[in-house]
Amino acid sequence: MTIVFAILSIALSVGAQFLLKFGVQETGFDNQQNIMLIIKNWKILSGYLCYSLAAIIWLKVLADWDVSKAYPLMGIGFILSLILGWMLGEVISMDRLLGILAISFGVLLVART
Question: What is the chain's mean pLDDT, rounded?
Fold first, then answer.
């Protein structure tokens, strides 16, 4: 069951990254006048909420597993962000893909222990 919490926490963190990206793209981040727009943007607020939920859920993971087992599983976030980014039209280079495959192999090794 802990693996479910770990994956949920990681998925929320990935979702937070994309929400923050979309929010800051809407408002811009080039001057101080945009600070209030950034603070009030629903995507950015939702991103911070996702990060907060992810952190709370991650506490459950840490309560059940050694950090040396739990933390490497964060590599799943690289895989999820690559897939989601590709689905949203991001260009994925061969080097990036090979790097994610290497991370995936490492995550698989850690998960087996």
Answer: 90
